[in-house]
Amino acid sequence: MSVLDGPRQEKRRIQISGEAVWATMSEDGMLILEDGSSVSADEVTHLPPCVATKIICPHLTYTSRGIESRNKPQPTPYPTYFMKPVTALNGHRGAIVKPEDCQYLNYEGEFAAIIGKETKNITPEEAWDHIAGFAPALDMGLHDFRDTDSGSMLRVKGGDGMCPLGPGLVTGIDPREQTLRTYRNGQLVQEANIGEELVWGPDYMIADLARHITLMPGDVVLTGTPCHSRSLEVGDFIEVEITQLGRLSMTVVSGSAPRATVGHQPTNSEEVRRVALGNDSRVPDRFKENYREASK
């Protein structure tokens, strides 16, 4: 059965008595466990709604982001990708650490496709049958490291906790028919009609990747972000909402600088600032105004 078929269903992966368990979300906000008991979704620790072997992320996939970043709605003829370590996974209502030696921690509101079964050599039409579900996501990045790692984005996007997912895994909903909104401290800072702006859907990207890479159950394929990714401060409350999929909420906390002084250090170059601070001349005024308001 395709992930798009049937009524909407949401499963969440939570921690009960120190163990990870799956529960089904009910209409009254309760989580129903496999033994039939229930618990309030507000009273449990949420875990990422998957156990991944890899996290694959695309570069510019939304037209507004392409215009802001490259002044082209589609900067590349085909999608290009990078990866995050699985230690980047983070759960709903968790903490995103901003290290003391970095100043540019950027949000990117997205949705993720979670792979449901071993996937290799398929067509885009077949990809829907290989997806376990969808979840709101935040592709967080420390852009202080844009000047290193030869474009692999490893230290920009790969830090611990830099891939929040959740609250749950949703089926029966077509994300291409939804709206993406990101909020900083309650103020709207990103908004996109996914079907109108997303250049390549999850079906295309999964089929593209699976030509030569076997995707395993639990693997995460992110789908990109619209315009107006900006840097956050310690104490900020960042949320991404995908209509019909849910609302993922995270808090930025301070982390100490690393003890070791080896390796490429954070930088504040022109390229770092170009990406971290964006281009306000190419984004709607309401995002700039809301961002300033949320920063107060």
From TrEMBL:
Pfam families (alphabetical): FAA_hydrolase
GO annotation terms (biological process): small molecule metabolic process
InterPro entries tied to this protein: FAH (IPR051121), Fumarylacetoacetase-like_C (IPR011234), Fumarylacetoacetase_C_sf (IPR036663)
Stretches assigned to the Fumarylacetoacetase-like C-terminal domain: 54-253
GO molecular function per UniProt: isomerase activity; metal ion binding
Keyword Metal-binding tagged: yes
Lipoprotein in keyword set: no
The entry's keywords: Isomerase, Metal-binding
Family affiliation: Belongs to the FAH family.
Protein name: 5-carboxymethyl-2-hydroxymuconate isomerase
The organism of origin for this protein: OM182 bacterium BACL3 MAG-120507-bin80
